[in-house]
Amino acid sequence: MSPTSPARRLRLGLPRRVFSQVLLMQLAIAAGVAVLATGLFLAPLSDQLDDQAMRRALAIAQTTAAQPGIAEDLTSTAPRPDGAVQTAADRIRRASGAEYVVIMNKEGVRWSHTDRDQIGKVVSTDPSDALAGQDVMEIDNGTLGRSARGKVPLRDGEGHIVGAVSVGIEYDSVRARLIHSIPGLLAYAGGALAVGALAAYLISRRVQKQTRDLAFSDISALLAEREAMLHGIREGVVALDRGGRIRLLNDEAQRLLGLDGQAIGRPLDEALGEGRTTDVLAGRVTGTDLLTVRGQRVLIANRMPTDDGGAVATLRDRTELEQLGRELDSTRGLIDALRAQDHEHANRMHTLLGLLELEMYEEAAEFVGEVAGAHRVTAEQITEKIRDPLLAALLVGKATVAAERGVALDVPRDTALPDLLVDPGGLVTIVGNLVDNALDAAAGTRHARVEVSVRTEGRAVVLRVRDTGSGVPAEQRETIFTEGWSTKEPPAHGKRGIGLALVRRLAERQGGSARAGEAPEGGAEFTVVLPEALTEPELATTEEAR
């Protein structure tokens, strides 16, 4: 496109910046208001000046009619250019500045007039109203042109109407007064326009700073890009105003928080309910990368205040990452256990090799039996009491890890769990987290021991995990179930403080509970009750299960 093309010229003629456009719009509005106000003022002013002129003419006519001797001269003399009536009318006209003062008899014949040739002739306008005793105000055309007129009856000493007085003020003089007042009005209008222009300039400068001198098209494009970005990113965004009400909620935030678009405009506490997630988003819990659990999702939240007193919070879904992290922790534990077992296995093989070289065959066979039997007995004891395959496999693996860490994992005789779990995965998660915490607490203590007890009461499952660690202080037995609380060093893949929170959340999801207490022999005891954990009531007694 050439520089002189019409589209190019149009673009150059219309400013693109918000400052320039707002300033021009404000100036146009101020000018329009000034012109409109001037017009609205001038329209009634013309009527007011006409009314003033007519009232002035009427006042001069009334004053003339009240002059002593005029009525008598009218009735006693003939109409002459040098008569007494004409003389008195000329004197009043010159004194008042009127265009004419006409005195007539009852037949409308003039006794006075500015044009002496008109004396003795009938007036050109109808005087009947004045001769009937009425005062008349009007603007009309006569022999002297357009004028503002006032007519009154002329009465003699006894009050009888003997004629009329008509006084006219040249209408052009009224218009001249109107035109004369226009410069003053325009001066006021110009002052108002100047004040409006200054206000428009100040407003435009403020808008320029707030919009960073962008064009309206740029702002529109930014808003469109913002909407696309907010609803397209895989990170939840929640914007709050200074009153704690939700003013923006993108699609990912709705999914992570379980809300819908109707939550916009509602207070945060009302939309989400009480809980750590609400406290984090509301700023009652401070920090960066705060962990929170919403439903079955593990979320990472960050909150940034805004200049208007509100805040913007971002949410990241770490559920899968947290699961992978726990699996990584378990895998690392198993790797350590396997590494230790490999070392122990090498020692056993060396022992076996030595017995064989010494031809102590019976002792070698007995040694192999003891080693194999210990692992087999542990697995059989667990699988006899725990019929659910997932939970049994978990405990067998945990028993191996516990043995390598020097901790005895004990499953009491009264433990019994049928293969009727409604949510095996949930119970495995609960047991795995509690056992891992118990092993960490008991490792390195004297007579280190962890006890896992699972019993059924109708359709309910009662789980107890005890350890010989230092226990949990009474004032912290509720705090430890809060997301983000932990006494351990954070692992490589992220922060701790999720396990116990998930234990309680999974228990409450099934209408159950999770609490911490003190074990009879010291240490900690965690009790989880799941009232609807089985698909049908367990009919077998503990003795029958054994």
Question: Explain this structure to me?
Answer:
The protein is of the alpha+beta class. The protein has three domains: 16-232, PAS domain (Beta-Lactamase); 236-317, PAS domain (Beta-Lactamase), CATH 3.30.450.20; 321-545, Heat Shock Protein 90 (2-Layer Sandwich). Helices cover 50% and strands 18% of the residues. The chain has helices spanning 6-13, 18-65, 70-76, 84-96, 128-131, 171-211, 216-232, 251-257, 268-272, 276-282, 319-357, 361-385, 389-404, 424-442, 499-509, 542-545, and strands at residues 100-105, 136-142, 145-155, 161-170, 236-240, 246-249, 290-294, 297-305, 311-317, 408-410, 449-457, 460-467, 513-518, 524-530. A five-stranded antiparallel beta sheet has the order 6-5-9-8-7, with helices on both faces. A five-stranded mixed beta sheet has the order 10-11-12-14-13. The chain has a four-stranded antiparallel beta sheet with strand order 1-4-3-2. β13 and β14 (524-530) form a beta hairpin. The chain starts with 5 loop residues before the first helix and ends with a helix.
- Roughly what percent helix? 40-55%
Radius of gyration over alpha carbons?
54 Å
- How many separate domains make up the residues? 3
Classify the secondary structure makeup into a structural class: alpha+beta
- What strand line-up does the widest sheet have? 6-5-9-8-7
CATH architecture of the largest domain: 2-Layer Sandwich
Shape: rod-shaped
Q: What is the ordering of alpha helices and beta strands? A: HHHHEHEEEHHEEHHHEEEHHHEHEEHEEH
Number of helices, where a helix is a run of at least 4 consecutive DSSP H or I residues = 16
User: What is the C-level CATH assignment of the largest domain?
Assistant: Alpha Beta
Mean pLDDT: 77
| Major sheet description | 5 strands, antiparallel
Overall number of strands: 14
Q: What name is given to the CATH topology of the largest domain?
A: Heat Shock Protein 90
Distance between the termini: 92 Å
Q: What oligomeric assembly is this protein in? A: single chain
Full CATH superfamily name of the largest domain = Histidine kinase-like ATPase, C-terminal domain
Low-confidence runs of at least 5 consecutive residues: 1-13, 489-497, 537-546
Catalytic activity: ATP + protein L-histidine = ADP + protein N-phospho-L-histidine
Protein name: histidine kinase
InterPro entries: HATPase_C_sf, HATPase_dom, His_kinase_dom, PAS, PAS-like_dom_sf, PAS_fold, sCache_3, Sensor-like_sf
Subcellular location: Cell membrane
